[in-house]
Specification:
Shape: elongated
CATH topology of the largest domain: Rossmann fold
Radius of gyration: 25 Å
CATH superfamily of the largest domain: Succinyl-CoA synthetase domains
Structural class: alpha/beta
CATH architecture of the largest domain: 3-Layer(aba) Sandwich
Number of helices: 17
Distance between the termini: 32 Å
Helix content: 40-55%
CATH class of the largest domain: Alpha Beta
């Protein structure tokens, strides 16, 4: 099964069916243009009954006239043409198809019949389908994509985050997303209506993929909940799975039926499934990307006790407020730690650590204070993970933090999350890049940083429990 999904992400040749307009919103011509710009090295075969050329490539009238071989078809036509195209692809030996076309299971009883028809055609010739009603896949490693992205966006670098989504628009939202400095993208797979390939197949593949370290999953339903539980339980022992599950409310369930043809299930059952399998359930799409960053360094906390360094007491209070519902508790510092803090500055000694008064008293020495406080929390056994924030003023160059960040990176033995604030968004953004360049995940708010640490602690707790259960079974 792993190889079947892999073939969608790394085809040696691809035949594309649909409009050959190069500058349209979407169509075969748009995908071909993107493939050439990405530097895809496989063979590209445009197929259209009347177009002559596209992006300098000759268009063939019918797939039967293809000189050479393709192992993937990308179908972006009216649903009426899809069955015949799949039959001809099967006759030509093409065994994988991304069916972008809509008008199938998401469009009522007639659409469901059409979906059953194309699935029967595929099974008759040993073909596997992603879709229909999908945008397909994106794989930076093979420079291959069927997902359109807006001109002017910088594509994400190769990395270790793989995204499985059951909706088309999360694909293009993920591909041009600019905040991937810290983790990068390994693959994006949009499942659409999931008439064939589903999230279980993809999780099995990603579990075997050595380059995937974190998995983000958006689903509205599962056709195979028992298999999902089994494979997710197996995958979670090696790699974290973040999941956004749509359709929590009955009203959302009704909307799902017209979106991807999904049938709503009991959301409490999915909750129980996720907890049992160690899947981390998140609340919004951005969490699938944000929270993935906290897992990237591969450092898990030993517990749920949070250490906090701030430049203002108010943010320290907000941090604790965010920690409690996230499953974290403020660490109670040991006596030697409190004494060490008091030696750093007379204003210190309590927790959360508020460096505001020390900054006012000691000026530039605050950078040294940050490093020393950080070391105290790293050494204290009552602290399992650390949040800190910094301020960047218009008069400050982000490079002022270089020594501090270098020290933090060299001495990071526990999970760390950061946030920065200041009057200039540009300055904050530049500092965020510097922070992440030093191996520390940066978040847009304190709440997101703390929530991500909470997810990390919950996953570490589950994995520890699963490991002990395995030990008992072996005994």
């Amino acid at each position: 099964m792993s190889s079947e999904v892999r073939d969608f992400l790394n085809p040696k040749g691809v035949a594309l069916f649909g409009s050959m307009k190069e500058n349209w919103f979407f169509g075969a011509g748009v995908v071909i243009k993107d493939l050439l710009e990405l530097g895809y090295s496989g063979r590209v075969y445009p197929v259209h009954p009347s177009a002559e050329t596209v992006c300098g490539l000759k268009v063939i009238r019918d797939v039967s006239g293809m000189n050479g071989s393709a192992d993937l078809a990308v179908v972006i036509t009216s649903y009426r043409q899809v069955p015949d195209i799949l039959r001809k692809c099967g006759e030509k030996g093409i065994r994988r198809a991304v069916v972008v076309s809509d008008g199938f299971g998401e469009s009522g009883a007639e659409g469901r019949k059409r979906q059953e028809e194309i699935l029967a055609i595929a099974r008759g010739c040993g073909m596997r389908i992603i879709g229909p009603n999908t945008l397909g896949v994106f794989s930076p490693g093979s420079r291959f994509s069927t997902i359109p992205y807006e001109t002017g966006y910088r594509l994400p670098p190769k990395g270790s985050l793989s995204i499985i989504t059951q909706t088309g628009m999360y694909g293009p939202q993920a591909v041009p997303f600019t905040d991937y400095r810290f983790i990068g993208i390994r693959s994006v797979i949009d499942l659409g209506n999931m008439c064939d390939i589903d999230e279980v197949d993809c999780l099995e593949y990603l579990n075997d993929d050595p380059h995937t370290r974190v998995i983000s999953l958006y689903i509205e339903h599962s056709r195979r909940p028992r298999e999902l539980l089994a494979v997710a339980n197996r995958v979670s022992r090696n790699k974290p799975i973040l999941c956004l599950k749509g359709g929590r409310s009955p009203e959302a369930g009704e909307a799902m039926a017209s979106h991807t043809g999904s049938l709503a299930g009991n959301d409490m059952l999915y909750d129980a499934l996720f907890r049992k399998a160690g899947v981390i359930r998140v609340d919004e799409y951005e969490d699938l990307l944000d929270c993935a960053k906290i897992f990237a360094p591969g450092v898990l906390p030993r517990g749920n006790r949070l250490g906090v360094i701030t430049l203002t007491g108010a943010i320290g209070i907000q941090c604790i407020d965010a920690a409690i519902p996230s499953g974290l508790a403020p660490g109670t510092l040991a006596g030697p730690s409190r004494e060490a803090l008091s030696h750093i500055s007379a204003t210190l000694g309590s927790h959360p650590i508020d460096l505001g008064p020390a900054s006012a008293m000691d000026g530039m020495a605050v950078f040294s204070h940050y490093m020393k406080c950080y070391d105290v929390l790293m050494e204290d056994p009552a602290v399992d993970c650390i949040y800190f924030n910094v301020y960047i003023g218009n008069y400050m160059a982000p490079e002022l933090y270089l020594d501090m960040l270098g020290h933090m990176h060299r001495n990071m033995r526990k999970p760390v999350a950061a946030w920065a604030y200041g009057p200039s968004r540009e300055a904050v953004h530049k500092l965020s890049i510097l922070i992440e360049d030093h191996g520390i995940p940066f978040f847009s708010t304190t709440a997101k940083a703390v929530r991500s640490l909470g997810h990390l602690a919950a996953y570490a707790r589950w994995r520890d429990s699963a490991g002990k259960k395995d030990e008992r079974l072996e005994a």
